[in-house]
Amino acid sequence: MPEQILGPVTPFLDQIFQHLKEDQIDVDSFELDHICYRVATKEKYIKLKQQLSAYGELLTETMIGGRPIATFKLHQPYEYQNRKIYCLELPSPKEGSPYLEGYEHVEFVIKDSFEDFMSKYSHLPFKTKGMQKAVNPEISRKYSNSSVKFHHHPIEYVIKYLD
After folding, report:
1. Does any domain span residue 11?
2. What is the DSSP string of 27-49?
3. CATH at residue 76
4. pTM of the entire structure?
5. Amino acid 163: pLDDT
6. Comparing 51-55, 62-66, 151-155, which segment has the lowest mean pLDDT?
7. Could you tell me where the DSSP H helices lie in 24-142?
8. What's the rounded Cα separation, in Å, for the pair 77 and 88?
9. Inside any domain, residue 134
10. What is the residue range of 48's domain?
11. CB neighbour list of residue 16: distance below 8 Å, 6 or more residues apart
12. Any idea what DSSP says for residue 65?
């Protein structure tokens, strides 16, 4: 399991699901399609990318926002509360944007339009900048050390068919 090199994922997911519970966002019927793990340096990105290849297949390494992002499909998924999460995203840090190392966000696949989804949760502010993305637009909720993103297609589908 990647947790041997990245650390345990359960505390991170417990925190994410606690935020969602506090926000009253019901994600029970949504696929949690991937987890993102951030690194602080390019050197660490290269090292972890190499190490993670023992735990999964590199689906793609794509330049996004001026830096490479590697996405792996894990041989053994993360398992959390009856969920299996097969994909792990590993972005290289953006120059001039320091990041703490660790699990950073999760992404859920929703069926509702963004407008309908946000209207269900009109008591919450969503970040909508990601709605402008050409490939797999998204909306998100930002928390102190993490975020949750909502989009319409699983990352593996996007890599195979939309990228």
Report:
1. yes
2. -TTSEEEEEEEE-SSHHHHHHHH
3. 3.10.180.10
4. 0.92
5. 55
6. 62-66
7. 42-52, 114-120
8. 9
9. yes
10. 3-18+28-162
11. 106, 143, 146, 148
12. T
Coil, strand or helix at 105: strand
Do 120 and 54 form a contact (C-beta atoms < 8 A)? no
- Of residues 157 and 34, the one with the higher pLDDT is 34
Q: Would residue 126 count as lying in a domain?
A: yes
Rounded to an integer, the average pLDDT of 13-22 is 96
In the chain, how many domains are there? 1
What integer pLDDT is reported at residue 135 of this predicted model? 84
* Residue where the block lists tokens 């041997």: 4
Phi, psi (degrees; rounded to nearest 5) at 113: -65, 160
SS3 22: helix
Among the listed residues 3, 91, 93, 2, the one whose alpha carbon sits nearest the alpha carbon of residue 40 = 93
Residue 64 pLDDT greater than 90, yes or no: no
Q: What is the largest CA-CA distance in the chain?
A: 43
Which of these, 112, 145, 163, lies nearest to 15 by C-alpha position? 145
Residue with tokens 């390019």: 42
Residue 34 has pLDDT above 80, yes or no: yes
What does the pLDDT look like over 90-134, one tens digit per residue?
A: 999 887 777 789 999 999 999 999 999 999 999 999 999 999 988
Please report whether residue 23 resides in a domain: no
Pairing mode of beta strands 102-109, 138-142 = unpaired
